[in-house]
Amino acid sequence: MKSHHTHSMRQIRQVLCILLPILILLLIILLFLRRQQQEDSVVPVQTESMDTQLSDSSPDDNSDSPSASELSSDTENASDSNTQNTEAEKTNDEAAQTTPNEEDILPQREPEPVTLLFTGDVLLSDYVLNNYSQSGIHGVVDDALLSEMQQADLTIINNEFPFSTRGTQAPDKQFTFRVHPDHVRILTDMGVDIASLANNHVLDYGADALLDTFDTLDSAGIDYMGAGADLSRASALITKEVHGVTFGFLSASRVIPVVSWDIRNASPGVFTTYDPSLLISAIEAARLQCDYLTVFVHWGIERDAYPQDYQVTMAQQYIDAGADLVIGAHPHVLQGITYYKDKPVFYSLGNFIFNRSIPQTAAVKVTLCEDQEPTIQLIAATASDACTRTCDTAEACTIFDYLEQISDNISIDDSGKLTQQTE
After folding, report:
1. Where are the beta strands (DSSP E) in 175-331?
2. 3-state secondary structure of 132
């Protein structure tokens, strides 16, 4: 009996051992399902509540009109809401006003100065070409001058010859010049940007040679002024924009060997200023198109250190018309400097690159910075063996002293800086 009872108890324990884990697992599942059901039941309640609130404030609500007290309450609530919105907007506006702009955060950049460099007469003579073939551009100008020309924002020269292999030499003319177009690379090596053609040599070999000159300079990326295929082009204003400043350049000649060189008499031709009225009109029109205007003019008597009376008169007329700077060429020597209405006039810069020897010359460096008066510096130079070089200090001071003697009311310090002297 005892054995049977023991066997029964063992069977019960075995069944419980099997059922108990199952019951525990079922209990866990039931608890998990109950919790999930409770969490799911929360969402409809919240959604219904929100829907009810939205329905109550909806303009499409079909309920009865509100009572006076409800209207008053709603008005107050709306007023409170508007006040809160206004204050929020005001806060946002104030925040926007106090937020620094990008330009306030970034440091203000100083305006960049602009430099213009003007030289006197340039002739690529056989001596110069021989130096170039042997030593390259360093055989034509020294490193200091080359650096000044290349680093200037704009470099302007008087091109005293045509680029061509064509044409017939002008008769009854003492000196006639012509240079092969391939040698235009000398100008590009020096950083020349603009070449004046208003002079008494660009038609030394006739119309074809001058047309070749236009094409050669165009192909080299060098602007030309003072000559053209018609009056409009010959008298055209050349403009260049640098750092937001527009610079204008005009050129004309009062020296031509025969009247047929005048663009009004033949094509192509030179823009002339024997009668200054056309150039004055061009200056007045140009004044409206640029911030700083330079007039480059060929005039005067060769080898004469002093300007003719007509040069003085014309320079004043050009400035009265709107020129900021007048640069002269043709005498092949330095002439005096003057100021008229606070505008500088350089009557002649002499030869810059020419034959074998140039005793005295100077390049004019004009530096302009926003809202400041231009700074003008003379770079004294000389040439021997057909290579133009900067002067040492003693040589430069000799040239500066000489220029002060032949000029009106100017002073030049040892660095070449030009200053107007008021009486």
Report:
1. 194-196, 223-225, 227-228, 238-242, 245-253, 269-270, 292-298, 325-329
2. helix
Length of the chain: 423
Of residues 375, 315, 290, the one with CA closest to residue 113:
375
Topology at the third CATH level for domain 114-420:
Purple Acid Phosphatase; chain A, domain 2 (3.60.21)
Tokens of 376: 């003008």
pLDDT of 99 above 90 = no
Q: Residue 25 above 60 pLDDT?
A: yes
Count the neighbouring beta carbons within 10 Å of the beta carbon of residue 210.
26
| CA–CA separation, 376 and 378 (whole Å) | 7
* Closest CA relative to residue 183, chosen from 204, 205, 159: 159
For residue 189, give both structure tokens: 């090596």
Residue 327: helix, strand or coil by DSSP? strand
pTM (2 decimals)? 0.75
Please tell me the predicted confidence (pLDDT) of residue 106.
52
* Distance (Å, whole) CA 307 – CA 407: 10
Domain ranges, ordered by start, for the chain:
114-420
